[in-house]
């Protein structure tokens, strides 16, 4: 089940993002109210509460609100959690140079994966994929992440299969990925257009200034994710057995990065393959990627 939109949460995130764009001068109550498309009277209790918690500070004479010291602790905690990216970036750049492909890193979530870093190949589209974009863990999407997810996520993904045949195929794909250390995700025309549309929608969501428009776009994104679930019976996403001399239409190859305690902290992926790539090349590329992911894990 897709999560229900939460206007209150959207409003809070939009507020923090807006003030973060003007870190030194801040925003007045009226400016914040206009940005959120609410009245100042509606906005003021939220600002007062955030100020009392230290998330915001109010200038005594200019009456502007800026980000407060409590968020410094939050930011430092987030930075520590993403320290793996500092280790991964040089490895990602090397992968890009060795393969000529775009390399991106994804952080795992409960129902989505989010792109945390992108190292683009020469000539790659400048805005796809982009940092912050999310992809649902819903068949036919997800084989690049699910093999290394927790068992609850794996079961939920398999339970969304369109019948026993599709489930068996998905289970086989998981086994193949775990044995080889990497997952290959094929694409169909529908998958390609869906992924591109979700990516473009993420870009538009970032630029929306009004809460009403943002909420409507969020509902549209949820609908597209539900469409992904409806087409989950597509067999275009997984490979039964990789054949060396057969050509494939590949979306991504992915490999996991595990922390010393075994937790999955990052997924490294490559994209930008030729329209047809033979199985021998995919096997070599997958092993190269898996080795690079293991290198990142060993440095943590």
- CATH architecture annotation of the largest domain: 2-Layer Sandwich
CATH superfamily of the largest domain: GAF domain
Shape: elongated
Might you state the CATH topology name of the largest domain?
A: Beta-Lactamase
DSSP helical segment count: 10
**Could you describe the largest sheet, including whether it forms a barrel?**
6 strands, antiparallel
Structural class of the secondary structure composition?
A: alpha+beta
Q: Show unreliable segments.
A: 208-212, 229-236
Order of helices and strands: HEHHEEHHEEEHHEHHEEEEH
CATH class of the largest domain: Alpha Beta
Strand proportion, as a percent range, falls in: 15-25%
Compute the average pLDDT.
Answer: 82
Q: Give me the side-by-side strand order of the main sheet.
A: 6-5-4-10-9-7
Terminal-residue CA separation:
35 Å
**Backbone CA Rg:** 21 Å
Total domains: 3
Q: Work out the helicity level.
A: 40-55%
Features:
10 helices; 11 strands; Arc Repressor Mutant, subunit A; 300 residues; 3-stranded antiparallel beta sheet; 3 domains; alpha+beta; Beta-Lactamase
Task: Describe this protein's structure.
By secondary structure, the protein is an alpha+beta fold. It contains ten helices and eleven strands. The strands form three sheets. A six-stranded antiparallel β-sheet has the order 6-5-4-10-9-7, sandwiched between helices. A three-stranded antiparallel β-sheet has the order 1-3-2. Helix 2 packs across helix 3 (40-52), helix 5 packs antiparallel against helix 10 (279-298) and helix 8 packs antiparallel against helix 9 (211-230). The two termini are 35 Å apart. Keywords: DNA-binding, Transcription, Transcription regulation. GO terms for molecular function: DNA binding; DNA-binding transcription factor activity. InterPro entries: GAF-like_dom_sf (IPR029016), HTH_MetabolicPath_Reg (IPR050707), Tscrpt_reg_IclR_C (IPR014757), Tscrpt_reg_IclR_N (IPR005471), WH-like_DNA-bd_sf (IPR036388), WH_DNA-bd_sf (IPR036390).
